[in-house]
Amino acid sequence: MALEAVKPGVYRLPVVGRTVTLIILREVEPCPRNALWEIFSFEAAKVFAGADTYRWRRDDHVPILEQIYQRYREVGISMAYTFEDFKREWTRQKLAEMTPEERLRGLSPEDLVRSLCPEDRLLGLSNEELVRLKDLLERRTSGQR
Fold it and tell me: Do residues 96 and 51 both lie within one domain?
């Protein structure tokens, strides 16, 4: 039985009438199409490069990466670049890709209002609404309900 090199890090091996493809992760060429392999390489720099490059089909991949990172820590692979660092960078990158409308959808109405100064909170109110608000404030400050 002889290994047949297909490309860097990829080999074919005939076994019992079948061909098995063997992938040596540390030998795989670093490029976007191999990003997923890098995530499982057990080399900190490759893991984070792969996680940053791989285009996930779903946005719920962060728990998967967190589990991989925890396994690396369990077996003693030290990573100066922590998973928290990765999550922070990933969040910044995703926020930069979002439109202002998409970002605002993540905030509650209360959070949106609190982020405005009092003058800006009044913008867009009609004269009738402003008069009603003034009456309400006068009653509240005088102790009436």
Answer: yes
Q: How many domains does the chain have?
A: 2
- Would you write out the chain's pLDDT as a tens digit for each of its 145 residues? 688 899 888 899 888 888 888 888 878 888 888 888 887 777 777 777 887 788 777 667 767 777 777 777 777 766 666 667 777 887 888 888 899 888 888 788 888 888 888 888 888 899 999 999 999 999 988 877 6
Residue 5 lies in a domain: yes
Amino acid at 61: H
Per-residue tokens: 138: 């006068």
User: Do 52 and 87 share a structural domain?
Assistant: yes
What would the two tokens of residue 133 be? 């608000």
Residue pair 3/13 in contact (Cβ under 8 Å)? The answer is yes
Are residues 6 and 12 in contact, defined by beta-carbon separation less than 8 angstroms? yes
Domain that holds residue 82: 31-108
The C-alpha atoms of residue 26 and residue 48 are separated, in whole angstroms, by 14
